[in-house]
Design the sequence.
């Protein structure tokens, strides 16, 4: 158990809908990262927050947004969902910024039908 | 920018050795290695820092060639438990914080 909690574990929804994925980092970790894992794309970096502030952005679509709250939990919002958004979404946390060991949650499997 | 990993897949018998390579066209500050078993989350193996030492994990070690922006992961005397997909992650110099992963190398160790 990495100590990172992601909910829900599975999510099935329809195209055009909006969903929210939630992540609680390990106790004491200030950084949260979001990754998308598709079969043919490996682990794609989406976005990173540190202590409530956005610190790095990857290939995150405009339809996707995220935030980190004062209690350090984070949410990834996916809207106007398309079939291609079906993937495993991982959240990871680390103590600080850069050169840090990442602890991954067990992921949220999103299926868009 | 995503690093490039090779090979895509490797099949080993217990006790054999293997090398997984990771390269980037950008100047790197650090290289991370993670292993993901089927249906599970990636698990940290090691970090190699620019100017730092090679750090090992049991019989898994790695090196970082700063001049070539390349890293190699060495699986020595492989065990069944080494099976999984290995990802290298790279942090580019001056970009910071953004850890980009390669497409992964699937390792299968057979008895």
Sequence:
């Amino acid at each position: 158990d990495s100590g990172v909690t992601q909910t829900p574990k599975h999510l099935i929804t329809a195209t055009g809908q909006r969903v929210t994925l939630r992540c609680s980092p390990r106790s004491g970790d200030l950084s949260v990262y979001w990754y998308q894992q598709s079969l043919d794309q490996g682990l794609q970096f989406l976005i990173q927050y540190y202590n409530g502030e956005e610190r790095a952005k990857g290939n995150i679509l405009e339809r996707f947004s995220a935030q980190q709250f004062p209690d350090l939990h984070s949410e990834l919002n996916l809207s106007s969902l398309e079939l291609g958004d079906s993937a495993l979404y991982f959240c990871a946390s680390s103590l600080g910024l850069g050169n840090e060991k990442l602890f991954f949650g067990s992921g949220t499997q999103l299926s868009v039908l | 920018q995503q690093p490039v990993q090779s090979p895509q897949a490797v099949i080993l018998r217990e006790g054999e050795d293997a090398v997984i390579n990771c390269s980037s066209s950008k100047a790197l500050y650090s290289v991370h290695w993670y292993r993901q078993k089927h249906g599970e989350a990636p698990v940290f193996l090691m970090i190699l820092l620019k100017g730092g030492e090679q750090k090992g994990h049991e019989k898994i070690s790695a090196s970082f060639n700063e001049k070539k922006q390349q890293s190699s992961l060495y699986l020595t005397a492989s065990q069944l438990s080494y099976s999984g997909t290995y990802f290298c992650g790279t942090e580019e110099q001056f970009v910071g914080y953004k850890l980009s992963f390669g497409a992964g190398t699937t390792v299968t160790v057979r008895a």
Observations:
- The mean pLDDT of chain A is 93.
- The longest strand of chain A covers residues 42-50.
